[in-house]
């Protein structure tokens, strides 16, 4: 598939942009990066391969736009954000087509992501007017203490390929609502979604320089975004190893940093759980986006009496999956983002089998292509397996038995990751105990889907810093300032 082929699939071909967006202008370059379809390997188009110079231009443009944007009444900023979100929904079919073409997820999932991305813009359009200060009871009679909440300034972001729309709006929404300006470097694997988002930002009335998209050399652009003195806050979603490195660079200028990093989510099924609901939740958590989500269930802890029925029911469900190109019709599972990702999944499965695991379904590359891996269910997986120790990021459910509640909690917490966890049990007291005892930033009880714009999203331990979404999502984009006023007696 070439760019003209993808254009022909769109109702609004103008959304397929192949230039970066800096200071309100569309920017091209002689050097360009190919963007391909992971389902077919076909080239979809090319985007500019920009570097440090263009990143500095974007930061400068964001800084120049800052004074006017933060001075606007919050209501005005909110109106623009809401219109931006409305445009996403109005063009959901085209945006989903672009997203599926470059990322690979089934079209139905892509449409869901478009709605999710729009929801953050709508939510934070309303939160813009709820940024409030306060007065503190003074410490002495001739003083008055006031607390101001003000925008941090220029925000820089690096976003991942697995949710190329939503991971931008989840950051840009609160940033722009607070009065900040924004520069984003999207993944080089999925830049077309970000550029379509920029086109709609322009149409919604986001002023030049307030929202910028820089495509190209990750290392060179990242160096500028993490070290520039004009950047006041840096936000990143991606791997733990890269997040640590980028955060360390930010400390040279002591930037505000928020990180949403890797997970290794436990999915605990007790023997009193509703089997059908547990399987439904496992399908949603484990196999959505081919297992390529940060909150994806990675370790299935199943109470001994429930292992056989759970493994059988889950295997039956995934064996009915339609695996293939998300643009070619109804599809349940698409490709992995790269051949290396499929190779990693295969290595993890082979390691588990060598350690004594039992294969129930899958366990091999799918015939659809070399970036596809068959949905796989394993049981009797050792806690020493790679599937336990590393984030697999693929369509593999690895089941490990446990005997008691205490053992399940101990095994679940045996990880430096602390993003999401899931529990299935009918016991109300156990629901409360496990929510409290699991060392994770988010816990889903009897549900495999926990993400929503109205709730805080984020982890603890090595899964990150800060929270995104909800009213708490504004906090990372606001500075707190004290005003201490001396009052003369009358």
TrEMBL record:
GO biological process, any: gamma-aminobutyric acid catabolic process
Pfam family for this entry, one: Aldedh
GO CC list: cytosol
InterPro entries documented for this protein: Ald_DH/histidinol_DH, Ald_DH_C, Ald_DH_CS_CYS, Ald_DH_CS_GLU, Ald_DH_N, Aldehyde_DH_dom, Aldehyde_DH_Superfamily
TM segment ranges: none
Alphabetic keyword roster: Oxidoreductase
Domain Aldehyde dehydrogenase positions: 26-481
Keyword Oxidoreductase among record annotations: yes
GO MF entry, a single one: succinate-semialdehyde dehydrogenase (NAD+) activity
Catalytic center residues: 260
Family according to the record: Belongs to the aldehyde dehydrogenase family.
The name this protein goes by in its record: Aldehyde dehydrogenase family protein
Taxonomic source organism: Aurantiacibacter xanthus
Lineage: Bacteria, Pseudomonadati, Pseudomonadota, Alphaproteobacteria, Sphingomonadales
């Amino acid at each position: 598939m070439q760019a003209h082929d993808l254009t022909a699939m769109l109702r609004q071909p103008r959304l397929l942009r192949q230039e970066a967006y800096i200071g309100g202008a569309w920017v091209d370059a002689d050097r360009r990066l190919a963007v391909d379809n992971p389902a077919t390997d076909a080239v979809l188009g090319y985007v500019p391969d920009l570097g440090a110079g263009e990143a500095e231009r974007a930061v400068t443009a964001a800084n120049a736009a800052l004074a006017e944007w933060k001075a606007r009444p919050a209501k005005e900023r909110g109106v623009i954000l809401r219109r931006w979100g409305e445009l996403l929904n109005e063009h959901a079919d085209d945006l989903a087509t672009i997203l599926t073409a470059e990322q690979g997820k089934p079209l139905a999932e892509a449409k869901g992501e478009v709605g999710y991305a729009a929801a953050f813009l709508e939510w934070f359009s309303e939160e813009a007017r709820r940024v409030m200060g306060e007065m503190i009871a003074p410490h002495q009679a001739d003083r008055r203490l006031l607390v101001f909440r003000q925008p941090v300034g220029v925000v820089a972001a690096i976003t991942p390929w697995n949710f190329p729309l939503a991971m931008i709006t989840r950051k840009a929404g609160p940033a722009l609502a607070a009065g900040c300006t924004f520069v984003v470097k999207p993944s080089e694997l999925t830049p077309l979604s970000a550029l379509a988002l920029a086109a709609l930002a322009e149409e919604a009335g986001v002023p030049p320089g307030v929202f910028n998209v820089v495509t190209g050399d990750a290392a060179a652009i990242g160096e500028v975004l993490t070290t520039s003195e004009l950047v006041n806050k840096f936000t990143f979603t991606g791997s733990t190893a890269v997040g640590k490195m980028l955060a360390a660079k930010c400390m040279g200028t002591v930037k505000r940093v928020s990180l949403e990093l890797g997970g290794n989510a436990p999915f605990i099924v007790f023997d009193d759980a509703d089997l059908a609901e547990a399987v439904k939740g496992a399908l949603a958590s484990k196999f959505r986006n081919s297992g390529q989500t940060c909150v994806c269930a990675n370790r299935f802890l199943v109470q001994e009496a429930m292992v056989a029925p759970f493994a059988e029911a889950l295997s039956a469900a995934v064996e009915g999956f339609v695996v293939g190109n998300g643009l070619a019709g109804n599809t349940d599972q698409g490709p992995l983002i790269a051949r290396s990702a499929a190779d990693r999944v295969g290595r993890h499965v082979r390691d588990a089998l060598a350690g004594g695991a039992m294969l129930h379904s899958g366990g091999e590359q799918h015939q659809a292509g070399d970036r596809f891996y068959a949905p796989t269910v394993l049981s009797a997986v050792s806690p020493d397996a790679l599937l336990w120790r590393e984030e697999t990021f693929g369509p593999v459910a690895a089941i490990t038995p446990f005997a008691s509640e205490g053992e399940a909690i101990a095994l679940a917490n045996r990880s430096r990751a602390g993003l999401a966890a899931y529990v299935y049990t009918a016991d109300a007291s156990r629901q409360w105990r496990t929510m409290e005892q699991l060392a994770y930033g988010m816990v889903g009880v009897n549900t495999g889907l926990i993400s929503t714009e109205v709730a805080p999203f984020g982890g603890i331990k090595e899964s990150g810093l800060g929270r995104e979404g909800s009213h708490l999502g504004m906090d990372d984009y606001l500075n707190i300032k004290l005003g201490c006023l001396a009052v003369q007696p009358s």
